[in-house]
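RECORD TYPE: inverse folding
INPUT: structure tokens
STRUCTURE:
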């Protein structure tokens, strides 16, 4: 199968030998599975979440005709499928920070989904920014030219996703994403999607909303929760085929770098829980997502075929264009300590 990102293969291989590469390409273009395969030598791919590491490693191993844990593998908390012979290794940011020597030894390091601007990924970018070559930064929604200028690198932009996604708004007026009557609105959207092909992926802000929707959904559905507190085996249920139509109720763990087979419909509540600080104290608040997250979520419907994305807010609503970096909204103590453990000071990065 020829993927949209394949058109950039020669440019990518040329660029990574000269300078750090910043690659922006739409969700569904194939960058997360193709680029690691193209790069020569030992490659470490840093993905923001455990579920993404496992699913991408399995997919790349399948494409390469290799056994998972052999030439292609992953290392995440509580689960290691890799060996000394592993050439392409998918890891989480925490694993990468605990083994900086492995990053130094690698011929290529890929930081995927940089647009999320997590503290640990920003720190890795600072630590690795000194590499003259062998560093690739990727995202579907990224101010790539600005990042490339920061790294004194090369910027490439891919176009086109593999399958089209139709967006349908279900809110009225200028309604922003909100938590009021959320369960009822999800059930209503599920009814509207009855004739749309494929399984359904519902984005919700947390476990409480997932539990409420799971209790409310009726009909011939296989309801599967997906969030970061589940074990890896429990998360794996979302990727298994089912006899009935599957409805995956997920937090933003399913937002990036994850292809759940058979998804043809996305229902997006447009909400996320984020830490906000007031008078020195952090509080979890329910907030509307930014447009870059909305685009990432909608793209999940077009990974394996044409899809439909239902947004539970109005088309007239104005969302922030980009998700604010964690460095602007989280405590910096973990970042300072991690930098110190690496023998560096933040001010020097």
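DESIGNED SEQUENCE:
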């Amino acid at each position: 199968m020829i993927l949209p990102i394949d058109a950039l293969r020669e440019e990518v291989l040329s660029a990574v030998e000269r300078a750090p590469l910043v690659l922006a390409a739409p969700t569904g273009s194939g960058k997360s599975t193709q680029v690691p395969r193209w790069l020569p030598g030992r490659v470490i791919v840093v993905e923001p979440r455990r579920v993404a590491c496992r699913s991408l490693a399995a997919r790349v191993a399948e494409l390469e005709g290799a056994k998972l844990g052999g030439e292609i593998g992953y290392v995440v908390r509580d689960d290691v499928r890799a060996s000394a012979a592993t050439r392409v290794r998918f890891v989480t940011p925490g694993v990468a920070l605990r083994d900086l020597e492995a990053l130094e030894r690698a011929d290529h390091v890929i930081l995927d989904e940089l647009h999320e601007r997590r503290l640990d990924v920003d720190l890795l970018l600072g630590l690795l920014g000194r590499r003259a070559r062998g560093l690739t930064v990727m995202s579907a929604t990224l101010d790539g030219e600005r990042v490339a200028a920061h790294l004194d690198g090369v910027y490439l932009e891919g176009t086109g996703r593999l399958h089209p996604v139709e967006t349908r708004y279900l809110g009225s007026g200028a309604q922003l994403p909100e938590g009021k009557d959320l369960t009822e609105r999800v059930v209503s959207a599920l009814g509207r999607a009855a004739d749309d092909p494929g399984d359904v992926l519902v984005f919700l802000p947390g476990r409480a909303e997932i539990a409420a929707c799971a209790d409310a959904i009726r009909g011939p559905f296989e309801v599967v929760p997906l969030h970061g507190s589940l074990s890896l085996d429990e998360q794996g249920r979302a990727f298994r085929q089912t006899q009935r139509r599957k409805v995956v109720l997920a937090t933003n763990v399913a937002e990036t770098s994850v292809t759940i087979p058979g998804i043809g419909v996305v229902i997006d509540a447009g909400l996320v829980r984020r830490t906000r600080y007031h008078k020195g104290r952090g509080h979890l608040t329910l907030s509307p997502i930014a447009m870059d997250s909305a685009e990432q979520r909608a793209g999940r419907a077009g990974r394996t075929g044409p899809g439909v994305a239902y947004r539970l807010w109005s088309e007239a609503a104005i969302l922030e264009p980009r998700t604010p970096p964690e460095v602007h909204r989280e405590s910096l103590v973990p970042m300072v300590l991690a930098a110190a453990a690496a023998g560096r000071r933040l001010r020097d990065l």
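NOTES: The mean pLDDT is 89.
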